[in-house]
Protein backbone atom coordinates (compact mmCIF):
# COMPACT_ATOMS: atom_id res chain seq x y z
CA UNK A 1 0.00 0.00 0.00
CA UNK A 2 1.30 3.46 -0.88
CA UNK A 3 2.10 5.84 1.95
CA UNK A 4 0.43 9.24 1.77
CA UNK A 5 3.06 11.93 1.24
CA UNK A 6 2.38 15.10 3.25
CA UNK A 7 2.58 18.69 2.04
CA UNK A 8 5.92 20.40 2.57
CA UNK A 9 8.33 22.75 0.79
CA UNK A 10 11.87 21.53 0.05
CA UNK A 11 14.72 23.66 -1.29
CA UNK A 12 16.65 22.11 -4.18
CA UNK A 13 20.37 22.38 -4.87
CA UNK A 14 20.98 23.77 -8.36
CA UNK A 15 23.98 22.13 -9.97
CA UNK A 16 26.08 21.69 -13.06
CA UNK A 17 26.49 18.14 -14.25
CA UNK A 18 29.37 16.64 -16.21
CA UNK A 19 30.72 13.13 -16.82
CA UNK A 20 33.18 13.73 -13.96
CA UNK A 21 30.45 14.47 -11.43
CA UNK A 22 27.96 16.97 -10.02
CA UNK A 23 28.95 20.49 -9.01
CA UNK A 24 26.67 22.53 -6.70
CA UNK A 25 25.97 26.06 -7.92
CA UNK A 26 25.48 29.02 -5.62
CA UNK A 27 22.28 30.12 -7.34
CA UNK A 28 21.70 33.86 -7.36
CA UNK A 29 18.71 36.02 -8.29
CA UNK A 30 18.98 36.40 -12.06
CA UNK A 31 17.78 39.52 -13.88
CA UNK A 32 17.38 39.40 -17.65
CA UNK A 33 16.86 42.62 -19.58
CA UNK A 34 15.56 43.20 -23.09
CA UNK A 35 14.16 39.69 -23.45
CA UNK A 36 11.72 39.32 -26.33
CA UNK A 37 11.06 35.58 -26.18
CA UNK A 38 11.40 32.58 -23.87
CA UNK A 39 11.34 28.98 -25.08
CA UNK A 40 10.25 25.86 -23.19
CA UNK A 41 10.01 22.11 -23.56
CA UNK A 42 7.71 19.98 -21.41
CA UNK A 43 8.22 16.22 -21.66
CA UNK A 44 7.18 13.13 -19.74
CA UNK A 45 10.24 11.03 -20.58
CA UNK A 46 8.82 7.65 -19.40
CA UNK A 47 10.68 5.92 -16.60
CA UNK A 48 10.37 2.44 -18.15
CA UNK A 49 13.62 0.67 -19.07
CA UNK A 50 12.31 -0.32 -22.51
CA UNK A 51 14.82 0.96 -25.13
CA UNK A 52 15.93 3.36 -22.41
CA UNK A 53 19.38 4.32 -23.74
CA UNK A 54 18.19 4.71 -27.33
CA UNK A 55 15.21 6.79 -26.25
CA UNK A 56 17.39 8.98 -24.06
CA UNK A 57 19.69 9.67 -27.01
CA UNK A 58 16.78 10.86 -29.13
CA UNK A 59 15.38 13.01 -26.34
CA UNK A 60 18.74 14.74 -25.99
CA UNK A 61 18.77 15.40 -29.73
CA UNK A 62 15.33 16.98 -29.47
CA UNK A 63 16.43 19.17 -26.57
CA UNK A 64 19.47 20.42 -28.47
CA UNK A 65 17.54 20.90 -31.71
CA UNK A 66 14.92 23.16 -30.12
CA UNK A 67 17.39 24.85 -27.76
CA UNK A 68 14.83 26.03 -25.17
CA UNK A 69 15.60 28.25 -22.20
CA UNK A 70 13.92 25.76 -19.86
CA UNK A 71 13.33 22.01 -20.18
CA UNK A 72 10.65 20.70 -17.81
CA UNK A 73 10.73 16.93 -17.42
CA UNK A 74 8.56 14.34 -15.69
CA UNK A 75 9.23 10.68 -14.79
CA UNK A 76 12.95 11.37 -14.47
CA UNK A 77 15.01 8.60 -12.87
CA UNK A 78 18.56 8.71 -11.55
CA UNK A 79 19.68 6.63 -14.52
CA UNK A 80 18.11 9.21 -16.85
CA UNK A 81 20.19 11.96 -15.19
CA UNK A 82 23.28 9.75 -15.48
CA UNK A 83 22.75 9.45 -19.24
CA UNK A 84 22.17 13.19 -19.58
CA UNK A 85 25.48 13.77 -17.80
CA UNK A 86 27.29 11.95 -20.62
CA UNK A 87 26.21 14.63 -23.11
CA UNK A 88 28.86 17.35 -22.96
CA UNK A 89 26.97 19.73 -25.26
CA UNK A 90 23.77 19.52 -23.24
CA UNK A 91 25.55 19.86 -19.91
CA UNK A 92 27.53 22.86 -21.13
CA UNK A 93 24.27 24.68 -21.88
CA UNK A 94 22.09 23.84 -18.88
CA UNK A 95 22.00 23.93 -15.12
CA UNK A 96 20.00 21.20 -13.38
CA UNK A 97 17.44 21.85 -10.65
CA UNK A 98 18.95 18.90 -8.77
CA UNK A 99 21.48 16.12 -9.25
CA UNK A 100 19.34 13.56 -7.44
CA UNK A 101 15.78 12.28 -7.78
CA UNK A 102 13.86 9.69 -5.80
CA UNK A 103 12.17 6.90 -7.76
CA UNK A 104 10.89 8.98 -10.68
CA UNK A 105 10.45 12.69 -10.31
CA UNK A 106 10.32 16.08 -12.01
CA UNK A 107 13.42 17.99 -13.13
CA UNK A 108 14.08 21.36 -14.78
CA UNK A 109 17.07 22.14 -16.96
CA UNK A 110 17.70 25.88 -17.15
CA UNK A 111 20.12 28.02 -19.13
CA UNK A 112 20.32 30.25 -16.05
CA UNK A 113 21.67 29.34 -12.57
CA UNK A 114 18.46 30.13 -10.69
CA UNK A 115 17.33 28.50 -7.45
CA UNK A 116 14.57 25.89 -7.33
CA UNK A 117 12.26 24.46 -4.70
CA UNK A 118 9.52 21.87 -4.71
CA UNK A 119 6.20 21.88 -2.94
CA UNK A 120 5.11 18.35 -2.15
CA UNK A 121 1.44 17.53 -2.50
CA UNK A 122 -0.60 15.19 -0.38
CA UNK A 123 -0.02 12.27 -2.71
CA UNK A 124 0.02 8.49 -2.82
CA UNK A 125 2.48 8.66 -5.73
CA UNK A 126 5.12 11.09 -4.43
CA UNK A 127 4.04 13.96 -6.68
CA UNK A 128 5.10 17.60 -6.33
CA UNK A 129 5.37 21.01 -7.97
CA UNK A 130 8.91 22.12 -8.90
CA UNK A 131 9.39 25.89 -9.19
CA UNK A 132 12.17 28.20 -10.35
CA UNK A 133 11.93 32.00 -10.43
CA UNK A 134 13.71 34.43 -12.74
CA UNK A 135 13.39 38.19 -13.12
CA UNK A 136 12.70 39.08 -16.75
CA UNK A 137 12.37 42.68 -17.89
CA UNK A 138 12.02 43.84 -14.26
CA UNK A 139 9.22 41.38 -13.33
CA UNK A 140 9.54 38.00 -11.60
CA UNK A 141 8.42 35.01 -13.65
CA UNK A 142 7.85 31.65 -11.95
CA UNK A 143 8.38 28.50 -14.03
CA UNK A 144 6.74 25.38 -12.66
CA UNK A 145 6.51 21.77 -13.69
CA UNK A 146 4.48 18.93 -12.23
CA UNK A 147 3.23 15.40 -12.74
CA UNK A 148 -0.24 15.13 -11.26
CA UNK A 149 -1.62 11.96 -9.70
CA UNK A 150 -2.32 9.33 -12.34
CA UNK A 151 -5.19 6.86 -12.83
CA UNK A 152 -8.84 7.77 -13.47
CA UNK A 153 -9.93 7.11 -9.88
CA UNK A 154 -7.61 9.85 -8.56
CA UNK A 155 -9.38 12.85 -10.10
CA UNK A 156 -10.06 14.39 -6.66
CA UNK A 157 -6.31 14.25 -5.96
CA UNK A 158 -5.69 16.05 -9.26
CA UNK A 159 -8.29 18.69 -8.46
CA UNK A 160 -6.66 19.36 -5.09
CA UNK A 161 -3.15 19.38 -6.60
CA UNK A 162 -4.19 21.98 -9.18
CA UNK A 163 -5.47 24.14 -6.33
CA UNK A 164 -2.08 23.82 -4.61
CA UNK A 165 -0.39 24.95 -7.85
CA UNK A 166 -2.70 27.94 -8.06
CA UNK A 167 -2.02 28.89 -4.44
CA UNK A 168 1.75 28.52 -4.79
CA UNK A 169 2.12 30.40 -8.07
CA UNK A 170 -0.16 33.22 -6.90
CA UNK A 171 2.89 34.43 -4.94
CA UNK A 172 4.43 35.61 -8.22
CA UNK A 173 3.24 38.35 -10.60
CA UNK A 174 3.87 36.22 -13.70
CA UNK A 175 3.95 32.45 -14.03
CA UNK A 176 3.85 29.53 -16.42
CA UNK A 177 3.48 25.87 -15.51
CA UNK A 178 3.57 22.73 -17.57
CA UNK A 179 3.73 18.98 -17.34
CA UNK A 180 1.77 15.76 -17.37
CA UNK A 181 -1.52 16.80 -15.77
CA UNK A 182 -3.26 13.46 -16.42
CA UNK A 183 -6.54 15.22 -17.25
CA UNK A 184 -8.48 12.66 -19.24
CA UNK A 185 -11.90 14.32 -19.58
CA UNK A 186 -13.34 17.73 -20.40
CA UNK A 187 -14.90 17.76 -16.94
CA UNK A 188 -11.44 17.49 -15.39
CA UNK A 189 -10.18 20.31 -17.61
CA UNK A 190 -12.61 22.55 -15.76
CA UNK A 191 -10.37 22.11 -12.67
CA UNK A 192 -7.65 24.22 -14.33
CA UNK A 193 -7.16 27.64 -12.68
CA UNK A 194 -9.34 30.17 -14.50
CA UNK A 195 -6.61 32.82 -14.61
CA UNK A 196 -4.40 30.57 -16.74
CA UNK A 197 -4.57 30.09 -20.49
CA UNK A 198 -4.36 26.59 -21.89
CA UNK A 199 -1.83 27.58 -24.53
CA UNK A 200 -2.64 24.74 -26.92
CA UNK A 201 -6.28 25.79 -27.10
CA UNK A 202 -5.24 29.42 -27.55
CA UNK A 203 -3.26 28.66 -30.71
CA UNK A 204 -4.85 25.44 -31.98
CA UNK A 205 -8.59 25.55 -31.25
CA UNK A 206 -10.28 22.47 -32.62
CA UNK A 207 -7.03 20.47 -32.79
CA UNK A 208 -7.04 17.55 -30.36
CA UNK A 209 -3.32 17.96 -29.67
CA UNK A 210 -2.80 14.36 -28.53
CA UNK A 211 0.27 13.86 -26.32
CA UNK A 212 -0.45 10.31 -25.11
CA UNK A 213 -1.20 8.29 -28.25
CA UNK A 214 -2.08 5.01 -26.54
CA UNK A 215 -5.42 6.45 -25.43
CA UNK A 216 -5.42 9.47 -27.79
CA UNK A 217 -5.57 12.00 -24.95
CA UNK A 218 -4.00 15.42 -24.35
CA UNK A 219 -2.55 14.64 -20.94
CA UNK A 220 0.29 17.17 -21.20
CA UNK A 221 -0.39 20.90 -20.97
CA UNK A 222 1.37 24.27 -20.90
CA UNK A 223 -0.52 26.95 -18.96
CA UNK A 224 0.40 30.63 -18.97
CA UNK A 225 -1.04 33.09 -16.48
CA UNK A 226 -3.16 35.67 -18.28
CA UNK A 227 -0.99 38.74 -18.53
CA UNK A 228 -0.37 42.10 -20.13
CA UNK A 229 3.31 41.19 -20.36
CA UNK A 230 3.50 37.74 -21.94
CA UNK A 231 1.68 36.06 -24.80
CA UNK A 232 1.97 32.53 -26.17
CA UNK A 233 3.13 32.70 -29.77
CA UNK A 234 4.00 29.07 -30.50
CA UNK A 235 3.28 25.59 -29.24
CA UNK A 236 3.80 22.32 -31.06
CA UNK A 237 3.89 18.60 -30.34
CA UNK A 238 7.36 17.06 -30.67
CA UNK A 239 8.82 13.56 -30.48
CA UNK A 240 6.30 11.83 -32.74
CA UNK A 241 8.86 10.16 -35.01
CA UNK A 242 10.16 6.63 -34.26
CA UNK A 243 13.66 6.33 -32.84
CA UNK A 244 16.33 5.12 -35.34
CA UNK A 245 16.22 1.60 -33.89
CA UNK A 246 12.95 1.10 -35.78
CA UNK A 247 14.50 1.96 -39.14
CA UNK A 248 15.57 -1.69 -39.31
CA UNK A 249 13.36 -3.31 -36.69
CA UNK A 250 9.63 -3.91 -36.70
CA UNK A 251 7.61 -3.35 -33.49
CA UNK A 252 6.84 -6.55 -31.63
CA UNK A 253 3.16 -5.66 -31.40
CA UNK A 254 0.68 -2.93 -32.21
CA UNK A 255 1.17 -1.21 -28.84
CA UNK A 256 4.97 -1.20 -28.68
CA UNK A 257 6.32 2.30 -28.04
CA UNK A 258 8.58 3.27 -30.94
CA UNK A 259 8.99 6.97 -30.10
CA UNK A 260 11.41 8.65 -27.63
CA UNK A 261 8.76 8.30 -24.89
CA UNK A 262 5.27 6.92 -24.46
CA UNK A 263 4.23 10.59 -24.33
CA UNK A 264 4.90 13.21 -26.96
CA UNK A 265 6.56 16.41 -25.81
CA UNK A 266 5.48 20.04 -26.10
CA UNK A 267 7.67 22.85 -27.38
CA UNK A 268 6.36 26.35 -26.69
CA UNK A 269 7.38 29.99 -26.96
CA UNK A 270 6.11 33.03 -25.11
CA UNK A 271 6.74 36.57 -26.33
CA UNK A 272 7.10 39.68 -24.21
CA UNK A 273 4.41 42.22 -25.14
CA UNK A 274 4.94 44.70 -22.30
CA UNK A 275 7.06 47.80 -22.37
CA UNK A 276 10.79 47.11 -22.35
TrEMBL record:
> What are its cofactors?
Mg(2+); Mn(2+)
The record's section on InterPro entries has:
Endo/exonu/phosph_ase_sf (IPR036691), Endo/exonuclease/phosphatase (IPR005135), TDP2-like (IPR051547)
A single GO BP term for this record reads: double-strand break repair
Primary location recorded for the protein, binned into one broad class: nucleus
Positions of the Endonuclease/exonuclease/phosphatase domain? 41-263
Presence of keyword Electron transport: no
Q: Name one GO cellular component term.
A: cytoplasm
Q: The organism sits in which domain of life? A: Eukaryota
> Which GO MF term does the entry hold, naming one?
endonuclease activity
User: Which PANTHER family does the entry link to?
Assistant: TRAF AND TNF RECEPTOR-ASSOCIATED PROTEIN, TYROSYL-DNA PHOSPHODIESTERASE 2
Localization annotation: Nucleus, PML body
Q: Give the protein name, as stated in the record.
A: Endonuclease/exonuclease/phosphatase family protein
Keyword field: DNA damage, DNA repair, Endonuclease, Hydrolase, Magnesium, Metal-binding, Nuclease, Nucleus
